[in-house]
Request: fold
Amino acid sequence: MIEHRPIITVLAHLTLILGIAIVAFPIWVTFVAASHDAVRMTQVPLPMWPGDQFFVNLNKAMFEGIAGAGGIPVGMMMLNSLVVALMIATGKIVISLLSAFAIVYFKFPFRMGFFWMIFLTLMLPVEVRILPTFEVVANLGMLNSFWGLSIPLIASATATFMFRQVFLTVPDEMLEAARVDGAGPMRFFWDILLPLSRTNIAALFVILFIYGWNQYLWPLLITTDASMFTVVMGIKQMLESAEQTTEWHLIMMTTLLAMLPPVVVVLTMQRMFVKGLTETDK
Amino acid sequence: MLKRVHYGSSILPFLLVAPQIIITLVFFIWPASQALYQSLLLEDAFGLSTEFVWFDNFADLATNKLYYDTFRRTAFFSVSVAGIAMGFALVLAAMADRIIKGALTYRTLLIWPYAVAPVVAGALWVFMFDPTLGIFAYALNVIGVDWNHKLNGSQAMALVVMASAWKQVAYNFLFFIAAMQSIPKSLIEAAAIDGAGPVKRFFTVIFPLITPTTFFLLVVNVVYAFFDTFGIIHAVTQGGPAKATEILVYKVYNDGFVGLDLGGSAAQSVVLMIIVIALTVIQFRYIEKKVEYS
Reply:
């Protein structure tokens, strides 16, 4: 602190608390709504203080779902989301590690061509090629499958760039020493490069897990089978049903459940999250 | 780029890049080239006949008043989202930068909305502003404002802007605070010795020095508003009422998947692609400058 000005410090704290209150208010409203029964949630004004139905609603949402929205148990949708998020995060990391290794450590024909091809994916977000990508996935018979939900999303220029950056900082002596000791390329990759990039992998994993869990447009397009729905797209189904039936207590419970895993990941792995975010900023 | 000490050519490097390259070719480059090709075709509504029409679809877009409206709307939406999310985050970061005790707690409590999916953020906000039940709709009614975003276009726009900005504050806050904390303390102390108070120091020392971060965040926020807010709009307004919240990405989806105007939708995709490429180039040029700044 440069100077001692208690008034300004107090003001700073107050502003931050106010900011947090504004940011957190929607969650409070959601939590309150998820803890009341259906009848209370139709009376205006809505409650601002939690009720006693939280666990009843939790149980109902997790195992029965909302009747008006197809009655798909939220627990099952969360499991789907978990599988998809893990597949996307792991897939992106694995294929990016391998291609970054090839591009940094091997001299081979079309090396730069491959690099630019990967770079190009940065400029082709799924939103601008939805129809043709959908056709490709349909032709490959991957609709309504975990493969279809994850594979088309796992090419990653940002992850490849990040690992390339990490590998470039590894001293040349490492490879020379490994060679002297008679290690082949894959042995070098597995025993030296992987352990050296451990924290970067962890940081990237946090970001990619959130990315995978929060996918919306893609699952919405390629899943028609209720057993493959992810929880994030399930919310939309429920909002549509809210036009006719009023089950806001269950919808808000589902909303709470849908944001819980990624938020917990961010809060518990905060250091990794910040590292991942600042290092993959393209 | 290539290590000084490296391996020679063999089949191995090709096997290593193969998974990434195959996925890139099948799910990125092929579909994108299809989008390019389709944008030159005219297909009837039943998909029975297609005709190669060169740049007619683009000419249609260029003369379509509705498309210009969508463009203007998207610009307004992006600028509003970026402005609100960045302004709010800048104020909070400037405050957090002054605080020594509890700074980490504040950061923890501010960054989590980043992890909330856009469609989930949409659900939170649409619930608070539900015209019949929502808490804010009720409060606004009490003070005499008639809130109904399902009928009123500007209210619908305000709602999607708020929901989108809310989600992005966390990201901006993290980058602003990191930038502020990397400013050498000696500069701030020198300004203080010269008699500059906290407010003056913010505007004459801190803010100019974080300009690269501000510029970077501006690009990121615009990209976010252009592409990542689809879920919010889909959950909150479906582009309505009367297209009042239909932004470019939403129109591509709507014309393609709902309206089945494949050529027109593909032509719009191509326009979007050009916008992404332009934004990416801007972003990369900036990254080069960041190195010399730090």
